[in-house]
Amino acid sequence: MLPTIIVIAIVLILAIFLITSYNRLIKLRNWVQEAWSQIDVQLKRRHDLIPNLVNTVKGYAEHERETLESVVEARSQLVNGSPQERIDADNQIEGALKSIFALSESYPDLKANENFLNLQEELSTTENKVAYSRQLYNKSVAEYNIKRQSFPTNLMASMFNFEGEEPLSIPEEEREVPDVSF
After folding, report:
1. What is the pLDDT of residues 52-93, one digit of tens each?
2. DSSP conformation class of 161
3. What residue intervals traverse the membrane (predicted)?
4. I want to staple 141 with a disulfide (CB 3.0 to 4.6 A). Which of 9, 22, 165, 168 is the partner?
């Protein structure tokens, strides 16, 4: 009788372990997807704000066509492609937006335009949300990958084909330390 109880207890403990490990992996994988969807929402918000900004700037800086076209081109890439391709397009937009905001220094009327200032503020807020969402995504990916690769959960992960996720990377040009001189 005692050996049967011991076997049943071991099987029960093993079953509880498998169920909790599997559910934990599912939960972490869904957190990664949720974190990505938050980035996607902010990228879409930025995507929708850009035409208004470009039109506002066009009125003041018509001959800055190249700068405006680079923003529009980068914007079109923002909603298509893989997550990493979209993040790359996002990085291009970031650079293009910096150029547009730099234009405002050359056009005092543009710099004082209420519509331009509101769009600049909204884009700045969106930039902060994108940065926060990226951090959340990378944290979720790290937690998921650690759990997926840790023993004994790695056995469960390989048995049910839980694939690893890639964290978002920083572009090489953003890794350089800015040169500040006084």
Report:
1. 888 888 777 766 777 777 777 777 777 677 777 777 777 778
2. T
3. 6-25
4. 165
What is the per-residue pLDDT for 172?
Answer: 62
Q: How far is residue 121's CA from residue 125's CA, in Å, rounded to a whole number?
A: 6
- What sign does the CA torsion over 148, 152, 154, 160 have? negative
Would you say how long the chain is, in residues? 182
Supply the DSSP string of 35-67, one letter for each residue.
Answer: HHHHHHHHHHHHHHHHHHHHHHHHHH-TT-HHH
Tokens describing residue 104: 């405002």
For 95-111, give one letter per residue: b (16+ CB within 10 A) or e: ebbeebbebbeebeebe
**Tokens 């005692």, located at residue:** 2
Name the DSSP letter for residue 180.
Answer: -
Q: What is the DSSP string of 68-99?
A: HHHHHHHHHHTTSS-HHHHHHHHHHHHHHHHH
In angstroms, the CA 109 to CA 99 distance is 17
Q: What is the pLDDT of residues 142-180, one digit of tens each?
A: 999 999 999 989 988 999 999 999 888 766 655 565 554
Q: Which residue has the tokens 């492609």?
A: 81
Cα(17)–Cα(35) distance, integer angstroms = 27
